[in-house]
Write a structure and sequence with these properties.
BirA Bifunctional Protein, domain 2, Rossmann fold, 2 domains, about 30% helix, globular, binds adenosine-5'-triphosphate
C-alpha cells in the first residue's frame, strides 16, 4: 500500500529531531542555555559545511567572482561610513501589560495600530530606537577610543577590500566578491530556532558593475539566485519574490527584492537581492579619503561602480532546507498497525553522511569487509559505520538524517565481494560489486 506523505507541520518536531540526532543543540545547554544562540552538533556541523560549499562553489567557480575572508573586527569608522552607527536601529516597544519587549513592526496591524504579539494588548510604550550592533573594546583600556563593534553584516569587509581584491586578482568590471562569515545583531525579538539569532553566518556576494548596467545585472542575479535555491531542492511553490516598497527600502538602496520561503511559521525572508547603487563605495571614499574608482581602459572613463548584492543567511537557508526535506511516510501494516518512516529528503550533496555501512552481523569477516569499504569511501565523503540493532532500525536511523544510500554487507558478500545498496527515497535495492560502490554513488549524485 502506498504510504501517506506528511510534510513538516510544526517547527517543534524538527527542533526535537535536530537535538536527538546531533544537528543543533542549544548553546551552553548545561548552564540553562543562552537566548537564541545555537551550536551545530556532529551531524549539523557537516551539514552546514555542505550548505556553505554549495553556495561557495556556485559563487566562486566562475571567472568573474573571487572569494574573500575578512576579519569580524573592523576599523570603527567603517560603521560610521556605512551608516550603521546612525541608522542600524530597530524601533523597540514595551507592552505595559505583559512586559513583553518587541520590534514595533512585528506588532503593527494593517490599520497601523500596534498590538503586543504575546498578549494582544495595545497598551504599549512609544517606540525607542535601539542600535543592533554589539559593542566591545579592543586592547587593555576600556574607553571611547578603544570601542569597536562585532560586524552586523559581512558586506562592509567586501567594500573596504574592493580595490585590493580587484587589483590583486586583476579583474575587470563586471566582477564580484563572495564571502561567508559570522555576523552579529542584538536582535530585539530573535526566535524560531535558527531562523533569527543574535550570532549567525551570512553568505554575501557583491557584484560591481558599470552604473548604467546595474538594472540588467540586478535582474540576472534575481533569476540566478532563485535557480540556485530551486536546485538545492526547495519546493517551487514555497518560494516567492517580494519587492521592498518605498517605505521598506533601505536608505542606500535603489531597488530590493527578498526571496521569501514558506516556513512552518509563515512566509519569511530568506535572501535579499539589492541594487545598492554607488552608496557604499562613495561613503568609504569620503570617510577614508582613498579613491575607490574604477578606470575603464577600453572606454577611457573613471567611475565609482554600482553594486548588486545577494545576501543570504546560512543558518536560515539550512533551516529552510531541513523544513523542506522533512517528511513522514505513514503506512498501515497488514496487522493493522501504523508504521511511520521519517525521512530527511536532502539532496545527497547536502546530506551529512553520504552512505551508511551496515554489516549484517558482527562476525569478523563482515566487519573487516565493511571497514575496508568505509575507509575507501572516507577518501571522498563522510560515511557512517553502524553495526548495532536490527537492519530495519539501522535503515530508519539513516533515513532520518538524510543518508542517501545504505550499503549492506552480508554473509554472501564475503564470498562474492558484492554488496546491497539501498536507496533512501525509493527503498529500492541493487546488488553490485563492492569495487563499484564509489562510481555507482558518484553517478547517482550527478543524476539526482
Ligand atoms: P530581517 O528583516 O529578517 O531582520 P534583514 O532584511 O535585516 O533581515 P539583511 O540585512 O538583508 O536582513 O541580511 C541578509 C540575510 O541575512 C537575510 O536575508 C537573512 O537570511 C540573514 N539574516 C539577517 N539577520 C539574521 C538573523 N538575526 N539571524 C539569522 N539570519 C539572519
Amino acid at each position: 500500500m502506498a504510504a501517506k506523505i506528511v510534510p513538516l507541520e510544526d517547527l517543534a518536531t524538527l527542533v526535537s529531531l535536530c537535538k536527538r540526532r546531533g544537528f543543533v543543540f542549544q548553546s551552553s545547554e548545561i548552564y540553562g542555555g543562552l537566548g537564541s544562540c545555537w551550536d551545530y552538533g556532529p551531524l549539523g556541523s557537516q551539514y552546514k559545511l555542505n550548505v556553505k560549499m554549495a553556495w561557495w562553489n556556485a559563487m566562486t567557480r566562475r571567472d568573474d567572482i573571487v572569494g574573500l575572508d575578512a576579519a569580524i573586527l573592523m576599523h570603527p569608522t567603517v560603521w560610521k561610513a556605512s551608516g550603521h552607527i546612525d541608522t542600524f536601529t530597530d524601533p523597540l516597544v514595551d507592552c505595559k501589560d505583559c512586559k513583553n519587549r518587541f520590534r514595533e513592526d512585528h506588532g503593527t496591524k494593517d490599520d497601523g495600530t500596534v498590538a503586543c504579539p504575546k498578549c494582544g494588548g495595545t497598551n504599549v510604550t512609544e517606540a525607542r530606537n535601539f542600535n543592533l550592533m554589539f559593542k566591545t573594546f579592543m586592547g587593555a583600556v576600556e574607553g571611547d577610543s578603544s570601542e569597536i563593534f562585532l560586524r552586523p553584516e559581512t558586506a562592509q569587509g567586501i567594500f573596504v577590500n574592493f580595490e585590493n581584491a580587484q587589483t590583486s586578482a586583476r579583474k575587470k568590471i563586471p566582477f564580484g566578491i563572495a564571502q561567508i562569515g559570522k555576523s552579529f545583531r542584538n536582535e530585539i525579538t530573535p526566535g524560531n530556532f535558527i531562523f533569527r539569532t543574535r550570532e549567525f553566518e551570512q553568505m554575501e556576494m557583491q557584484y560591481f558593475v558599470e552604473p548604467s548596467t546595474a538594472d540588467k545585472f540586478f535582474e540576472q542575479w534575481k533569476e540566478a539566485r532563485m535557480n540556485f535555491l530551486l536546485n538545492l531542492g526547495l519546493e517551487k511553490d514555497r518560494l516567492k519574490f517580494s519587492e521592498h516598497g518605498p517605505d521598506a527600502l533601505a536608505h542606500y538602496a535603489k531597488a530590493a527584492f527578498d526571496v521569501e520561503y514558506k516556513f512552518p511559521f509563515g512566509w519569511e525572508e530568506l535572501e535579499g537581492i539589492h541594487n545598492r547603487g554607488d552608496y557604499d563605495l562613495s561613503q568609504h571614499q569620503e570617510f577614508s579619503g582613498k579613491k575607490l574608482e574604477y578606470f575603464d581602459e577600453a572606454n577611457k572613463k573613471k567611475y565609482v561602480p554600482y553594486v548588486v548584492e545577494t545576501a543570504i543567511g546560512c543558518d536560515r537557508l539550512s533551516l529552510a532546507l531541513l523544513c523542506n526535506a522533512y517528511r513522514e511516510e505513514h503506512t498501515t501494516l497488514d496487522n493493522g498497525k501504523e508504521d511511520k518512516r521519517v525521512v530527511l529528503g536532502l539532496k545527497p550533496e547536502l546530506a551529512p553522511y553520504k552512505a551508511g555501512i551496515l554489516p549484517l552481523s558482527k562476525k569478523e569477516p563482515l566487519q573487516n569487509m565493511s571497514r575496508k569499504i568505509q575507509d575507501d569511501l572516507n577518501q571522498h565523503w563522510l560515511v557512517n559505520y553502524d553495526e548495532s540493532g536490527s537492519i530495519g532500525k539501522r535503515y530508519r536511523r539513516q533515513d532520518e538524517v538524510g543518508t542517501p544510500f545504505c550499503i549492506t554487507v552480508d554473509f554472501e558478500s564475503v564470498d562474492d565481494q558484492k554488496v546491497t545498496i539501498r536507496h533512501r527515497d525509493t527503498m529500492a535495492q541493487d546488488r553490485i560489486p563492492a569495487e563499484q560502490i564509489k562510481s555507482y554513488m558518484s553517478d547517482k549524485f550527478m543524476n539526482w
